[in-house]
Every structure is written in C-alpha cells, then in structure tokens.
Design goal:
By secondary structure, the chain is α/β, with parallel strands linked by helices. The chain is built from 18 helices and 20 strands.
Length: 537
C-alpha cells in the first residue's frame, strides 16, 4: 500500500513537501514545546493539535463516503496530553453532528478537555482494570471512526493494563486493518509503537492515518511503526526545532531532482559518469545484466563491465553499448564501482571486489562482495545488505544481532554497522534504511511489495552505482542536497532507493513486476524527477 506523506495546514488542506522530511525524537519535540508551555501557550498548542486532528477525521469520513452528520465516533483516551487532544477533537465532532463516545482507559484524564467534551453532549465510558472490555470494543469496532489518544511521545514500552486488554479486544472485534469497517486515526502516533525506533513489542492499534504534531517522530518512519502509522499527516503547531538534529530524514522528489545530472552542451560520456561493474558469474549471469540495464536507464555516461566473457555476451544481447572485458580493476577507468551481484563461486570476481575496495573510488558493495569488506572503509563505500546479510556482517565484527532483531530495529542496526565499518549502509526491507557513519539516518518508503522478487536488489545496485559515478566528481552535490559532505553518500543511496521504488510502483500499475523489464520505468521516473522544481532554501 502506498504511504502518503503530507504536511497538514488546516482541515486536510495539504502542501507538497519541497525539501526532505525531518523526524525528531520524542524528547526533542517535548523540549521544543517547553518554552511555549512556560510562556502560557500550552492550551493554544493543544487546540491547534485538536483542530488538525478534527480536520483529518472530517476529511477521511468524507473520502470514505460516510458523510459527517450522523456519523459515529469513539475517542480512546489515556492520561496524557494526547488524550486531551483527542477529547477536544471529539468535542468539535459533536458540534458537527457526529455521535461521539469517549472510552477512558486511565484512572485520570485531562480535566478541561473532558469537561468540554461533556458540555458538547459527549458520552464517557470508563474502563477499569476489572472490567471486561469486549462490549465496549465491539461498540468501537462498529463506529465509523476511532480516534486513538491512548499513548503519546512520553510513553515508553508497549501497551499495558486496561489499554492493552481493550486494544486486544478491539483488534479481535474489528479484524485486520484492510478489512475492518472502522477508520482508525492515531493522535500523534499509534499506541503501542516505539516513539523513536518504531519497534512493536505487543498488540498495537494500527491506524489508517496518523496525525502527528510539531514534527514527524522516527518511529513513524521506521520498521513496524511505519506500517502501523498508515497515512502520515504532519501538523505545524509552531515549534522551533532549528537547534535540534533530526533523528531521521526522508528524501522527497525535489531532493532527488537537485542531485540528478542534467547533461550540458559540453558534456561527453566521460564527464557524465563512468560506472565500473564487476558482477555476475557462470552460476548467476543474469544479476550483472539486471544491474547494467538499471544503471544505463539512469542516464549514466558509460558502463564498463568486468567479468566472464559468457556474462558479457548475455549483457550485449540487450545492451551492446556496454564496454566489456575480462581485465582488472586497475585497467578500467571509472568514476565509481559496483561489485557483488551474482558474483558467486568466482575467484576473479572476488579479487575484483577486493581491488575495487582498495581503489579509493566510490564503491557499491552488494551480495557476494560483502564478505570482502576490510575492517574499515570510508563513507563513499555503500553497503547494500538485507537483514540476513547484515546479521552476518555484524557477527564478523563481534556484534550479535539476529535477523529478526534487525528487522524489528533497522535504524539501530544500520547505524551500528555504519559505525563499526565506516561505510554508508543501506539496509533493504519493506522500508529502506540508510545510515551514514556520521550518525545521520535516512528512511525511504517508496517501494511496492511487488518489488520483493528475484533480481530486484541487482537493479537497485545498478541505480545507486550509476548515481555514485555521476556525482563522484561533483563538488556541489552535497550543497544541493543540503547535507554535510560525509553524508552525501547516504543521500545518494536514499535517492537510489526512491528511484527504484518509484519505478517499481509504475511497473506494478501494469501488473506483477518482471524485474528485467524495469529499465523503461527507471528512465520514466528520472524524466519526471528532472522536471521537479529544485528544493526551496
């Protein structure tokens, strides 16, 4: 399902992001709120949040064809400010003719918001530790919309006590998100996800849409938290976060457009980037062909292929413009290298991977070449493992991490790998997580599940390698991307993930994806991005 990221202004009017989305830790967002609260603006912040939440709920009701007047809603209320935001949103819904019930899941709730909700005609039901939540959960499951205000950014760990039992009962009564009738809107974040890491350790109330305040939180972009969040609406409530460092960022179209190379009248094939590719083997020749096709589709000036003559013959059947040889890395002039896809049981390809890593040039390292990594490298070495490969890479450095652990906390382990190797690390998965050794983290949600097929990673390697070759000698690339020089390679990797995912979505519009036919979609996405206005500075 496509993840939609918007910036909410009021009542579901949206503005397209013109620069990368930045997510800040829950602690930093709360710290940014403190000066406003100390200045007596706490209630104003709450009212802005409630009004935005109300606007999203109205929009979802209308988009679903249910209308507003006469609709039914249930507000799930915890003890914190999120519960207050939800109650104030419920008050507004009552005044628009929606029948609203508040389910109080804590012994204490925000007094002023609960009183306002009652004055507007709202009905409250309090569940305690001894009550059976089944009947109330069934009532909520039958409503048109459920607002989740149970937990906020100050919570740690998963749901507990009465809230846990209620969510379990609701999930049983409502069924899976894709088939349930009630729309669930999360206030700030779905209750049960890790605010800063997206980790889910128990039942969670998966949302159709999340309305988050001040800034996105990392847990809404990472791991299972990103899945649970649904559509993400980010509400500007007037916080100043300029003194805080983003915990995670997501590239948007304008960012990638700023990076892409537009040929000039004085350009020639060498100035447009030469990618060297040491991939494929007698056992897996197709991996090289897939990587070559994807690289050429980006508009790179040239691809040099090094490997078995039989693999070169396969490549030339589709791409005769590729320069191929069985020579060495030292004899092949390139601006960047991509090594590893399909290079299995081939000592010559293994040696080429080693030599590429010693060349001092940018290198994209995938699959079979990951085992050739020296102890330390520079950030211009981009590793592209999946969770299983990352587990083995970390184990070789004395870090114990099972595949399931990595999938549950991709941001944490991608950063550990970047720290321990010095490389930029792109961790593949249902979200793509890219870590720079500086500690910067990028997360992309552009792909379709249809890309989970053999050869997909080979095309991603080709795209990233081509971008690295094109930008390797571009002294202004980091400035255009708005990042430090050391983080340019993470941005290049994230840009490759965006292009790859977007091409996959285009292809999936025609039906199941055949990876070998993806290059025209890659070129089409590049063309669309080149038409995108540059980021606003």
């Amino acid at each position: 399902m496509r993840r939609i990221v918007t910036v909410l202004i009021t009542c579901r009017r949206t503005a397209k992001l013109d620069h990368m989305l930045e997510a800040f830790s829950g602690a930093d967002v709360r710290a940014a709120e403190t000066p406003l609260i100390d200045a007596g603006e706490g209630d104003a912040l709450m009212q802005r949040a409630a009004h935005a939440l109300f606007g999203v709920v109205l929009g979802l009701l209308r988009e679903s064809g249910r209308g507003v007047y006469g609709a039914t809603a249930v507000v799930l209320t915890g003890s914190g400010n999120n519960g207050a935001d939800a109650l104030y949103a419920g008050e507004r819904l009552l005044r628009r003719g929606v029948g609203v019930t508040a389910v109080l899941l804590s012994e204490r709730v925000h007094g002023a918001s609960h009183e306002a909700f009652g004055r507007a005609g709202g009905i409250s039901v309090r569940l305690d530790d001894h009550a059976d939540p089944s009947a109330v959960a069934e009532h909520a499951a039958a409503a048109d919309v459920v607002i989740d205000g149970i937990l906020g950014t100050g919570a740690s760990g998963g749901l507990r006590g009465t809230a846990l039992r209620f969510v379990e009962a609701f999930n049983a009564a409502a069924g899976p998100r894709d088939t349930r009738s009630a729309l669930v809107v999360a206030c700030d974040l779905p209750s049960g996800i890790g605010v800063d890491d997206g980790r889910v350790t128990g039942p969670v109330l998966a949302a159709d849409a999340t309305v988050t305040f001040g800034a996105a939180k990392p847990g809404l972009l990472l791991a299972d938290g990103a899945v649970a969040a649904g559509e993400l609406n980010i509400v500007d409530i007037g916080l100043d976060l300029s003194s805080f460092v983003p915990a995670a960022r997501t590239l948007v179209d304008a960012d990638v457009s700023a990076l892409l190379s537009r040929p000039g009248i004085k350009d020639q094939k060498y100035s447009r980037g030469v990618l060297g590719l040491a991939a494929g083997s007698a056992r897996y020749p197709g991996a090289a062909a897939l990587a070559v096709g994807a690289a050429l589709a980006t508009g790179v000036g040239m691809v040099r292929y090094l490997g078995p003559a039989s693999v070169a013959t396969l490549i030339h059947q589709r791409n005769p413009e590729v320069v191929a040889s069985t020579g060495s890395i030292a004899d092949a002039r390139s601006q960047a290298w991509a090594v590893g896809p399909g290079a299995v049981d081939d000592d010559e390809q293994r040696q080429r991977a080693v030599d590429a890593l010693r060349s001092g040039l940018p290198v994209v390292v995938d699959a079979g070449a990951l085992t050739e990594l020296p102890d330390r490298v520079e950030p211009h070495v981009i590793l592209t493992p999946h969770a299983g490969e990352l587990s083995r890479l970390l184990a070789a450095r004395g870090i114990d991490a099972e595949r399931a652990d990595i999938e549950a906390e991709p941001g944490r382990f991608a950063l550990r790998a970047a720290e321990s190797t010095g490389a930029t690390v792109l961790l593949k998965g249902f979200t793509t997580t890219v870590a720079s050794p500086s500690g910067a983290l990028f997360v992309q949600h552009d792909a379709t599940p249809w890309l989970a097929t053999a050869g997909s990673g080979d095309t991603l390697t080709g795209i990233i390698g081509a971008l690295a070759a094109t930008l390797a000698e571009d002294d202004r690339a980091a400035d255009r991307a708005g990042v430090a020089e050391q983080d340019l390679w993470a941005v290049i990797a994230a840009a490759g993930a965006l292009i790859h995912g977007r091409a996959g979505r285009r292809a999936a519009g025609r039906g199941p994806i055949v990876v070998s036919s993806l290059p025209p979609d890659i070129s089409a996405v590049i063309g669309e991005l080149l038409e995108e206005p540059p980021p606003q500075t």
